Amino acid sequence: MGNASLSIILADLGKIEFDGHDITNKAPHEICRRGISRTYQIPRPFPDLTALANVAVGVMCGKPRPHMGFGDALLDASHCLEFVGLFGKRNILARDLTLYELRVLELARAIATTPKLILIDEVMAGLNPGESLRAIKLIRRMMEEYHLTLIWIEHVMKIIMEATDRVVVLHHGEKLVSGSPREVSEDPKVIESYLGKKYD
Predict the structure, then answer these.
(1) Which CATH number do you get for residue 148?
(2) In terms of DSSP bridges, do strands 149-153 and 167-171 run parallel, antiparallel, or are they unpaired?
(3) pTM
(4) Does residue 8 lie within any of the structural domains?
């Protein structure tokens, strides 16, 4: 979103199903309306819109709701901003928000689409330890209160250990191992692949 260009790679093999529906090669807005949302490693807001308007766009692009006007979308967006702690910045342009606030705005916009599943890409990148802790608590609360499933790409092992229920480790594009955070962190294949044989 925003100034960044998006490239879409279509699948030429296999099939992707979600919630009983084939979503293979569906357009992003169709996938969103099926209940999948996402955040970006590099935040992609609409920089010249306010935080409130950014989240209202998420409301309007999410699950279809008959007879919903823009005023309704703004009200829903206000609730999302309040949930993530950004209501006080609702009238600030996105380009004037801090990195932490932009990452939280991404989460607010994601939940505004009324998803069942959110894909999160390195939401902690660039955050200091205090901000990371706040983000972890917020994401946990999102899962509990909105009954969400999250698929989270992250390279900071401390965060993975604290914030996830199940970990899948990829190595050269293939699944190396999966299991609980503790099981994965103690797996010899993971230790060798990411730390070297001397740690095995």
Answers:
(1) 3.40.50.300
(2) unpaired
(3) 0.84
(4) no
Tens-digit pLDDT profile for residues 6-51: 677 888 999 999 999 999 999 999 999 999 999 988 999 999 999 9
Which DSSP string do the residues of the chain spell out, in sequence order? -TTS----PPPSSS--EETTEE-TT--HHHHHHHTEEE--SS----TTSBHHHHHHHHHHHSS--TT--HHHHHHHHHHHHHHHT-GGGTTSBGGGS-HHHHHHHHHHHHHHT--SEEEEE-TTTT--HHHHHHHHHHHHHHHHHHT-EEEEE---HHHHHHH-S-EEEEETTEEEEEE-HHHHHT-HHHHHHHH-GGG-
Query: Which are the contacts of 169, defined by CB distance < 8 A and separation ≥ 6?
Result: 175, 176, 177, 178, 184, 187, 190, 193
- For residue 123, what are the domain limits? 17-164
Please determine, for residue 4, whether its predicted confidence score (pLDDT) is greater than 60.
no
Same domain, 134 and 181: no
Do 103 and 126 fall within a single domain? yes
Task: Determine the pLDDT at residue 6.
Answer: 60
Q: How many domains does the chain have?
A: 2
Same-domain status, 159 and 174: no
The pLDDT confidence band at residue 118, using thresholds 50, 70 and 90, is: very high
| One domain for residues 143 and 188 | no
